[in-house]
Write a structure and sequence with these properties.
6 helices; flat; mainly alpha; single chain; two-stranded antiparallel sheet
Length: about 140
């Protein structure tokens, strides 16, 4: 997350030292409102249960902003907040499945080798007993 915060102003500011202060709020806003690839949800929607209305949508009216009614909005917001726990749980499961798939790809060449009693195993030299100084390879 910190790397993403640092990369945002770097891309927008090249050579203008000290201008990052003005760009930081827009970078943070973009991070909170952009859906993440893993969870397919934005941080804003997971926190508040609804999608954000971007500033350009208020200037250039869209179907969503032109058909806005306060009463309908409040009812819809209550319904979204009731379903928010399920959305968070589904997002959590999606994230766990993604991490499991990444681990499988990373570990696909690992072969399990069972260790039996009296097998020689690689041990750290500083952990081994100095009175039985036989080196790194010692019976377990």
């Amino acid at each position: 997350m910190n790397r993403a915060i640092l990369e945002g102003p770097k891309r927008r500011i090249s050579g203008a030292h000290g201008a990052w202060v003005e760009e930081l709020p827009s970078v943070l806003w973009a991070m909170q409102t952009t859906p993440k690839t893993i969870s397919r949800e934005s941080l804003f929607s997971l926190a508040y249960g609804t999608e954000v209305v971007l500033p350009p949508e208020m200037v250039f009216l869209t179907l969503r902003t032109s058909s806005y009614k306060q009463k309908d909005f409040e009812e819809g917001l209550r319904a979204n907040l009731d379903l928010l726990v399920k959305r968070r749980a589904k997002t959590h499961l999606r994230t766990l499945a993604y991490k499991k798939a990444i681990a499988q790809v990373y570990n696909h060449k690992v072969r399990l080798r069972p260790i039996k009693v009296r097998d020689l195993v690689l041990r750290r030299a500083e952990v081994s007993d100095p009175t039985r100084a036989r080196g790194k390879l010692m019976p377990n």
